[in-house]
Write a structure and sequence with these properties.
about 325 residues; alpha/beta; four-stranded mixed β-sheet; 14 strands
Length: about 325
């Protein structure tokens, strides 16, 4: 029976992340932190746009598949943040979406090199291999699923056929990106594709496979297993948000301390003004103010609890508010 593409999880943590970060942007106390938050928002929006392009391709593929978008799988100290996990009749595809600015080249050693324009200058830089990144994701999935297999024989069989059943794909979602893999090793050429090649690639891999097809129930069970294993609160987006919150809290704490210090200084000034206003006429002295160097004068408190008591005050008041008990 034909079921077509079914999204078991379609939303992304990036949507919540962007909304929260916009709220934080207004709370940031410095332009530097505001700029950093804005940069994270731009990255998240750009990545989300690329993932939506992939979702469009999958939704209109006509292929029987269960789709999980943006899931976080953990096994012991291993963690995988997966853009798309797709269970089809023949294979399970693990997709890493890259919506990169600029042109991408893979050299003969498998290195990824990006070239782009920035502030009128041409920038050429190496980037971390998304193929290596996705291989780590596959390793986490393998360990997580193998652990649930139960006995030793089932675990061994699963591990033996894992690489045949699970396929890694790196999808370049930016249609403006020029992709050159002329000198890339052959094994990488089959793993790095454009978004508009995704559906045909899935069809081709499944058609070439001689494996027995999964039933609808088997497909659903596999997808449901990884959906149940998803840890949405432990995503990379959540980690970034928490770090930003901590920076905001540090800034607010610093700001509060500064305000308290100002209030304390103001309170001192008010007490001094009150003390001077309650004092009798001053008598000049040869004693110098230790703060500003002006002469100190002797004043007497004429009212209040300390009436009749004398004190030194700076003659440079109100510019200098130094006082000294006699």
């Amino acid at each position: 029976m034909k079921i077509g593409p079914i999204f078991l999880k379609e939303n992304s943590d990036s949507e919540n992340f962007i909304e929260k970060m916009r709220q934080l942007e207004s709370q940031a106390k410095t332009q530097e932190l505001q700029k950093e938050i804005k940069k994270q928002i731009n990255f998240a929006e750009y990545g989300a746009y690329g993932e939506k392009n992939i979702a469009f391709e999958l939704r209109n593929s006509g292929i029987d598949m269960y789709i999980l978008h943006d899931i976080c799988i953990e096994y012991k100290d291993l963690k995988a943040q997966i853009d798309y996990l797709i269970v089809t009749r023949k294979k399970i595809f693990i997709i890493e979406c890259k919506n990169l600015i600029g042109n991408i080249e893979i050299d003969s050693k498998g290195n990824f090199i990006r070239t782009y324009e920035m502030f009128g200058k041409r920038v050429k830089e190496g980037i971390y291999s998304p193929v290596t990144q996705n291989q780590r994701h596959l390793n986490v999935l393998k360990e997580c699923r193998k652990e649930a297999k139960g006995n030793f024989i089932l675990k061994a069989a699963f591990e033996h056929y894992f690489e045949d059943n699970y396929k890694s794909l790196i999808v370049l979602a930016n249609p403006k990106t020029y992709f050159n893999y002329k000198f890339a090793p052959k094994e990488l050429r089959d793993k790095v594709i454009r978004a508009d090649q995704l559906v045909e690639t899935i069809k081709k891999v499944n058609e070439q496979s001689k494996d027995k097809s999964y039933s609808e129930k088997e497909m659903r069970d596999i997808a449901q297993f990884y959906l149940d294993a998803n840890r949405p609160d432990r995503s990379d987006y959540a980690d970034k948000y928490e770090k930003m919150v901590q920076k905001i809290e540090v800034q607010m704490d610093t700001s509060n301390k500064s305000e308290k210090s100002i209030d304390k200084d103001n309170n001192k000034s008010e007490l001094f003004d009150k003390k001077v206003s309650n004092a009798d006429k001053s008598t000049s002295t040869d004693k110098l103010c230790p703060k500003c160097g002006a002469n100190l004068v002797i004043r007497k408190v004429k009212k209040g609890d300390n009436v009749g008591k004398s004190f030194y005050g700076c003659s440079n008041f109100p510019k200098c508010r130094y006082t000294e008990n006699i």
